[in-house]
Amino acid sequence: MRDYCIRTATPDDVDGARSVMLDTVYRDFGTGYVPHWHRDIVDLHGAYVVPVRHTLLVAVDRRDGTVAATAALDSRGPAHPPNPRHVAERYPSGETAQLRRVYVRPEDRRQGLARRLVAGLLDFAVADGGYRSAYLHTDPSVPGAEAFWRSLGKAVHDEREEPGGGQGIIHFEVPLP
């Protein structure tokens, strides 16, 4: 089993984290980079490193120093639109720790990295003291995503159950420790 260090991203980690994220949106999501959805990926420093209530965590392979996985948290709740109004109202900005960009390179999966990174994000949210909930949404067509998030939290809205299927997204709340 490989040895990884889970830590807050340093400026030296930002390019590696961006690479993991861009590879994921191209390979796993099939969308490629879409500025409206992925703007934060281009400016990870401004989106997650600089703001005090935001964070970017990385899993770094100790053998070669490469970033194997990422996870981010920000204080913005889900926007309506495109998300359902009742979801946006339930998770307002400033009170909601939104979990984002929990991505693991394929060759580093099944090592517990995503779970460890999410635990780190939740600890960060609790230490902040101002978050009352942790929220995320996921695309269930990504292999393993739905099962992973169901193991950690509770689905609060499944757009696949809406007439027309909505965006096909599942919205989750993950309990804060």
UniProtKB/TrEMBL annotation:
Coiled coil segments of this chain: none
Nucleotide-binding as UniProt keyword: no
UniProt-listed Pfam families: Acetyltransf_1 (PF00583)
Keyword Transmembrane helix: no
Gene3D superfamilies in the record: 3.40.630.30
Highest taxon of the lineage: Bacteria
Keywords associated with the record: Transferase
InterPro entries attached to this UniProt entry: Acyl_CoA_acyltransferase, GNAT_dom, NAT_camello-type
Domain N-acetyltransferase: 4-177
PANTHER family per UniProt: GNAT FAMILY N-ACETYLTRANSFERASE (PTHR13947), LD18367P (PTHR13947:SF37)
Protein name from the UniProt record: GNAT family N-acetyltransferase
Annotated organism of origin: Streptomyces tauricus
Lineage: Bacteria, Bacillati, Actinomycetota, Actinomycetes, Kitasatosporales
